[in-house]
Write a structure and sequence with these properties.
Shape of chain A: globular
Mean pLDDT of chain A: 97
Low-confidence stretches of chain A: none
Number of helices of chain B: 8
Order of helices and strands of chain A: EHEHEEEHHHHHHHHEEEEEEEHHH
Number of strands of chain A: 12
CATH architecture of the largest domain in chain B: Roll
Mean pLDDT of chain B: 83
CATH topology of the largest domain in chain B: Ubiquitin-like (UB roll)
Shape of chain B: elongated
Structural class of chain A: alpha+beta
Distance between the termini of chain A: 52 Å
Order of helices and strands of chain B: HHEEHEEEHHHHH
Strand content of chain B: 5-15%
CATH superfamily of the largest domain in chain B: Beta-grasp domain
Number of strands of chain B: 5
Number of domains of chain B: 2
Radius of gyration of chain A: 19 Å
CATH superfamily of one domain in chain A: CO dehydrogenase flavoprotein, C-terminal domain
Largest sheet of chain A: 5 strands, antiparallel
Low-confidence stretches of chain B: 1-14, 24-51
Distance between the termini of chain B: 31 Å
CATH class of the largest domain in chain B: Alpha Beta
Helix content of chain A: 25-40%
Strand order of the largest sheet of chain A: 4-5-8-6-7
CATH class of one domain in chain A: Alpha Beta
Strand content of chain A: 15-25%
Largest sheet of chain B: 5 strands, mixed
Oligomer: heterodimer
Strand order of the largest sheet of chain B: 2-1-5-3-4
Structural class of chain B: alpha+beta
CATH architecture of one domain in chain A: 2-Layer Sandwich
């Protein structure tokens, strides 16, 4: 790990101001915020992240979950994953989020990892994490992608490019995609709201840029829209072992039905996309249709229609289809 | 809990132990490599008061931090890069907390911060001034074992013992968390603690005894 200066700011605005001197907020940033540390410190130990300044935001007043008068739920960026998973409003109104959070990592890591940090969780691509491989367009732009010709069993099949096939690893963010969360940011030039659907970038030719954050941007809150009445939801995660493992495929589904017909559907996928993957195609295939297995299969087919598998992950197409069908079946058949 | 751990903690300073020799040698080595490099400073710059023990060898770039560990205040001078794990082991001489993977994957380094279990390898010590840190040394001692420590002994919840302090710290914390009563709930709750010897069935038995849920299969 290279040497760095550890800074404790007095306020979110000051933190943003300090970080605005970084040339980027993406890979290679020389100034980083640290909250739980579970991604950043891990990557600093690997020398994948080499910030010269680390801003410890843990003492900022951003650790509350507050129901707003308009029915939305405002989640502070420093709310720990374990606290959010057991928060009464989340358990009652957004169970899919609680399920996603509790399926991620271990109890210790969930006690550390934060809401803001989890949105910015970095890929587990072993070529990105291992400096022994010089080819990684995300870590070293223009160097190539070792995963495309290498071991890519766990890599993405949706949203990939010829430059990067790294999977976004978060479970929480997948549920938040289905819930249509809004990310609130304090930046050097003020505050702004970013719908989560516009937060993540596809890798394209610049996989080092993973989201729309600019130097100095600090996530302060995430807001969930008011819970839709009578909606049913489920988060299903499929992985190599029963617990404490990243998804090979996961699905967050939220459906509203009326007289057996689906009036509204939200489908997001994890473990298969270069970003937490919202499938508007699956949603269109479901809305207006009967909540039947036939239509669940059609939605799954629609979600994976544009999938582009690599040499080692063709299985993910069938796996994620079954994941979607089973998540929809579980959601719509529960009491 | 084993005799050797106890000896480690209480070993007299005048005796040149393996650990004391290594830390002295390490200090000299670090002083050489770091001299001349004016490294990180921090808001955690020390108050005027003296820093016990380490004053003579204050290495450029190190910072003074005060940590609350097992109810005592520990003033140590550390590199800002020091994880809580390394600081507990190398600066506080609390070697009951173990370093396994050093990447948050094995759970051997589990300690409590403000009563919650965390991986001490994935957090910087300087981020925890003012927090209440509890290590395995703080929950029980030989002759005064915590109920979970006694249960691990009774149920043979270990073989080599390397993961054990992390297992016990994790187990003590889980009894205060919202988990179901069954064995499968314990297994899920303890998934972040890996045991290469495979003592899992006995670990589950020990925890279930302490929770009052013995022989709940599911």
């Amino acid at each position: 790990m290279i040497e760095f200066q550890l800074i404790t700011p007095e306020s979110a605005a000051q933190a943003a101001q300090l970080a605005s001197a970084s040339h980027t907020a993406q890979q290679g940033a020389e100034i980083r915020f640290v909250a739980g540390g579970t991604t950043l410190i891990d990557l600093m130990k690997l020398d994948v992240e080499t910030p010269a300044k680390v801003i410890d935001i843990n003492r900022l007043d951003l650790a509350k979950v507050e129901k707003q008068p308009d029915g939305t739920l405002r989640i502070g960026a420093l709310v720990r994953n374990s606290d959010l998973a057991h928060e009464p409003n989340v358990l009652r109104d957004y169970p899919v989020l609680s399920q996603a959070l509790l399926s991620g990592a271990s109890a210790q890591l969930r006690n550390m990892a934060t809401t803001g940090g989890n949105l910015l969780q970095r890929t587990r691509c072993m070529y990105f994490r291992d400096l022994a491989y010089s080819e990684c367009n995300k870590r070293n732009p223009g160097s190539g992608c070792a995963a495309i010709e290498g071991l890519n069993r766990t890599h993405a099949i949706l949203g990939t490019s010829e430059h990067c096939i790294a999977t976004h690893p978060s479970d929480m963010a997948v549920a938040m995609m289905a819930l249509e969360a809004v990310v609130h940011v304090v930046g050097a030039s003020g505050e702004r709201d970013i719908p989560i659907g516009e937060f993540y970038l596809l890798p394209g030719a610049t996989p080092q840029n993973e989201n729309v954050l600019k130097p100095g941007d600090l996530i302060t809150y995430v807001t969930l829209p008011a819970a839709a009445a009578n909606s049913k939801s489920h988060y299903l995660k499929l992985r190599d072992r029963a617990s404490y493992e990243f998804a090979l495929a996961s699905a967050a589904v939220i459906v509203m039905t009326e007289g057996g017909r689906i009036t509204r559907a939200r489908v997001a996928l994890g473990g298969v996309g270069t970003r937490p993957w919202r499938s508007h195609e699956a949603e269109r295939a479901l809305e207006g249709k009967a909540a039947s297995e036939q239509h669940f299969h059609a939605a799954a087919d629609a979600a994976l229609r544009d999938a582009k598998p690599q040499s080692g992950n063709k299985y993910k197409i069938e796996l994620s289809k079954r994941c979607i069908v089973r998540a929809l079946t579980t959601a719509t058949t529960q009491a | 809990m084993s005799k050797s751990n106890d000896d480690d903690v209480k070993r007299p300073k005048e005796k040149l132990s393996r650990r004391a020799f290594l830390s002295t040698a390490g200090t000299v080595g670090a002083a050489v490599t770091l001299s001349g490099s004016l490294a990180a400073s921090t808001v955690a710059e020390p108050p005027a008061e003296r820093i016990a023990d380490d004053e003579k060898v204050a290495i450029p770039g190190t910072i003074a931090v005060a940590l609350r560990v097992n109810g005592e205040t520990r003033k140590v001078r550390i590199d800002p890069r020091s994880t809580l794990l390394d600081t507990l082991r190398e600066s506080c001489n609390l070697t009951g907390t173990k370093k396994g993977c050093d990447h948050g994957q094995c759970g051997a380094c589990t300690v409590h911060i403000n009563g919650r279990r965390v991986n001490s390898c994935l957090t910087f010590a300087a981020m925890h001034q003012g927090d209440e840190i509890t290590t395995i040394e703080g929950i029980g001692q030989p002759g005064n074992l915590h109920a979970m420590q006694a249960a691990f002994v009774e149920h043979d919840g270990f073989q080599c013992g390397y993961c054990t302090s992390g297992q016990i710290m994790s187990a003590v914390a889980m009894t205060k968390e919202p988990w179901g009563p069954e064995d499968k709930d314990v297994k899920e709750a303890m998934a972040g603690n890996i045991c290469r010897c495979g003592a899992y069935p006995n670990i589950v038995s020990a925890i279930q005894q302490v929770r009052g849920n013995s022989r709940r299969n599911g």
